[in-house]
Amino acid sequence: MEMQVREMDCPSCGGSLKLTSVYVRTTICPYCDQTLHIDDFGLSVAGKQPKLADYPTRFALGRKGKIKGKNFEVVGRVRYRGEDCFWDEWYLTFEDGKPGWLTEEEGECALFNKEKIKTSVPDRSQLKVGKTVDINNYKIFVTETGEVSIEGGEGQLFFVVKPGTELIHIDGNAGGKLVSIEFYEKEIEFHTGESLEYEDIVINR
After folding, report:
1. Beta strands of 10-163 (E only): which ranges?
2. Mean pLDDT of 104-119
3. N or C terminus of the chain: which is more exposed, having fewer CB within 10 Å?
4. Could you tell me the CA-to-CA distances from 90 to 37, 68, 79, 80, 123 in Å, in that order?
């Protein structure tokens, strides 16, 4: 299945927008920097996103390449920041139309896929470093926890992005598979993935 492109006009400035995935829920207009939320009725204006400072990276909006031989395009980015750290989460669409989440922190990359939570989730107080918990039939060893916030975003994103949103971020390992759990005020996001080596990622020139 090829990526399906939807064309819409920005309700703020009238600029032409191309949405490359049916999973996109937020897009930042490249012409006026307005954040636009997408629903069944179209686009609604939600204010401007702060500009993200640039750091050395192989990725950028619109950049294409391959991950382990599979074609992708970068469509968006969200930056998370903690007390003494930050990382970028790049939003990818693959040639089969499916989305992917690529995290990048200090040059280290990992590719994640979102999973629907099918079992109960332990209370956050039980998710401490060194503990093992069961979610979706995974035995997850918790390796890191922390309070972070969304600094901002750009491009096309798979959820509603509001700068300043606070969340609890949990990292873990389940039999060699990476696990990421994010506790927001009203929902929990659950992702599983794998670490990527430098040579796993080929960027088109």
Report:
1. 16-19, 26-28, 34-39, 42-48, 64-67, 70-81, 86-94, 99-105, 108-114, 132-135, 138-157
2. 94
3. C
4. 18, 17, 9, 11, 28
